[in-house]
Amino acid sequence: xxxxxxxxxxxxxxxxxxxxxxxxxxxxxxxxxxxxxxxxxxxxxxxxxxxxxxxxxxxxxxxxxxxxxxxxxxxxxxxxxxxxxxxxxxxxxxxxxxxxxxxxxxxxxxxxxxxxxxxxxxxxxxxxxxxxxxxxxxxxxxxxxxxxxxxxxxxxxxxxxxxxxxxxxxxxxxxxxxxxxxxxxxxxxxxxxxxxxxxxxxxxxxxxxxxxxxxxxxxxxxxxxxxxxxxxxxxxxxxxxxxxxxxxxxxxxxxxxxxxxxxxxxx
Length: 267
Known about the structure:
The chain is α/β, with parallel strands linked by helices and about 270 residues long. It has a single domain (about 5-120, about 195-265), classed as Rossmann fold. The protein has helices at about 40, 70-80, 95-105, 125-140, 145-155, 160-165, 165-175, 180-190, 220-230, 245-250, 250-265; strands at about 5, 10-20, 25, 50-55, 90-95, 110-115, 205-210, 235-240. The mean pLDDT is about 95.
């Protein structure tokens, strides 16, 4: 059963909270919900207070607009304020990474460290924008199941597709359960998001970059470029994983994330 918090802007946010100590927040991608992080929330309990929210429009959170990366960031900051949290490790996968960049831009003093998983700093290319418009039309005409069918192959790597059909089926169910309003709002927000490339040299907190070796949506070369641009960052490439590296290879993901969290000085 989710915890629920009502923000000053009126949005209700559902979230999971596990553990105690220094807080770290994990932000899911598109069109996921907080259950994406189930392999992390329980396994990393000894590393701090893990908070995994449903972003606006997904899972059990409210669906009303507006939708933008800035709004998602405001929602997350509002949740942390409601929970009495003044500083946290902030991490996100894919679209959750875009929200993480927006949090860094808006409120860097909140951020103790960053985790950027299977994401990219750049804005959408014209080709990507075209594909997002097609997905918006598909969502309106045929619903979330059709979006899940279109997205599932890119969500996981070839190894997972070949060796773990149960995981693929479970992820497909998660995608197919996303509300149409959330899908359309998120697609528009991703199309309209600011380019965060210029932010990378300003990041002066410990930063862990994780990417699946088989990630076709945000390839390893993009993570290598981020690593080169963020001073002192750490890059971990996870073999046998695609875009949802935390779900596909949870033991490897948890090892590198746990190691990173353990090394932080929280003074």
